[in-house]
């Protein structure tokens, strides 16, 4: 069942994910799916960008996923801006 949220992944994060090993990809994709199903779950910590935007960071195994929730659009989006190894 859809929660009304849509996942958006920028090119850098997508390239990282596509280059990851199969089991790592599955781990992150499962985590992203859980994030879209419950985007208001607590993040592990926050980062502030140079443009003063607060980004949430979720640890998924040995990966960190940086994202923000776009509530401004008709379709609410979980926007993934970066995925990296810890």
What does this entry look like structurally?
The structure is a single chain. With 86 residues, this protein is α+β, with helices and mostly antiparallel strands. The chain has a single domain (5-85), classed as YaeB-like fold, CATH 3.30.2310.20. The protein is 29% helix and 40% strand. It has 2 helices and 5 strands. A 5-stranded mixed sheet has the order 1-5-4-3-2. The termini are far apart. The mean pLDDT is 90.
Task: Draw up the topology in text.
Elements: E1 5-9, H1 11-19, H2 22-37, E2 45-48, E3 54-60, E4 63-70, E5 76-85
Parallel strand pairs: 1-5
Antiparallel strand pairs: 2-3, 3-4, 4-5
Based on the model shown, name its key terms:
86 residues, alpha+beta, YaeB-like fold, 5-stranded mixed sheet, 40% strand
N-to-C span: 32 Å
**Total domain modules:** 1
- Overall shape: it is globular
Radius of gyration: 12 Å
Can you write the helix and strand succession as a string? Answer: EHHEEEE
Sheet-strand content, in percent, reads: 35-45%
- Please provide the count of β strands: 5
Largest sheet, order of strands side by side? 1-5-4-3-2
Mean pLDDT: 90
Highest CATH level, the class: Alpha Beta
- Please work out how many helical segments DSSP would assign: 2
Short description:
This protein is of the alpha+beta class and 86 residues long. The chain has helices at 11-19, 22-37; strands at residues 5-9, 45-48, 54-60, 63-70, 76-85. The radius of gyration is 12 Å and the shape is globular.
């Amino acid at each position: 069942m859809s929660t009304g949220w849509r996942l958006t992944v920028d090119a850098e994060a997508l390239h990282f994910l596509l280059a990851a090993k199969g089991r790592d990809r599955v781990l992150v994709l499962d985590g992203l799916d859980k994030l879209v199903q419950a985007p208001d779950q607590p993040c592990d910590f926050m980062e502030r960008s140079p443009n003063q935007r607060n980004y949430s960071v979720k640890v998924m195994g040995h990966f960190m996923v940086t994202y923000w929730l776009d509530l401004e659009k008709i379709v609410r989006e979980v926007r993934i801006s970066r995925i990296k190894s810890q």
